[in-house]
Amino acid sequence: MIQQSFPRWNLDPDRIWLLPHLEIIEFLGEIPPERHVHLRIEDLLATPDIYLKQIAEWLEIRTGSRYIDAIQHPEDSPFAGYGPVNAAFGNDPEFLKNPVRAEYLTDRLTCAPSWDPDLIFSEEIKQYARLFGYE
User: Fold this and answer.
1) How far apart are CA 116 and CA 16, in angstroms?
2) d(CA 67, CA 73)
3) CA-CA to 41 of 20 to 30 Å: which in 22, 73, 93, 132?
4) Where along the chain do its domains lie?
């Protein structure tokens, strides 16, 4: 039996959160500022009617309440299924088990996240988090 070796992920929560954000900052450096949109997922999930309408306006797509409501119900989407036989499981299996919108996330830097009560955020993470609009 052949064993595959996979690179070991650095499971440091600070790095897991920060590295993709730094890549976004670098990428946006090549995009004119008037084409940037800053949106925290916590804000979108807390008040989806407001932010989904703004996003739809920015994308120049329909903004009526019927359309904004439909966006908030992924379970009704034709893509909220396992897919055809030749492309089964092309979606997140956990989402497919229960295709509903995610719950609101906390944005507090002063308390540990519920999934790791012993986690203390580094000063570097706090600095970047504040830059991104977190408390």
Assistant:
1) 14
2) 10
3) 93
4) 105-135
Is the CA virtual torsion 56, 44, 92, 132 positive or negative?
Answer: positive
d(CA 35, CA 28): 9
How does pLDDT run across 76-113, given as a tens digit for each residue? 887 777 777 777 776 677 767 776 655 544 555 666 66
φ and ψ of 13, to 5 deg: -55, -35
Q: Please tell me the distance from the alpha carbon of residue 125 to that of residue 120, in angstroms, as a whole number.
A: 10
Amino acid at the residue 13? P
Structure tokens at 89: 């499981």
Q: Are 5 and 65 in contact (CB under 8 A)?
A: no
d(CA 78, CA 84): 11
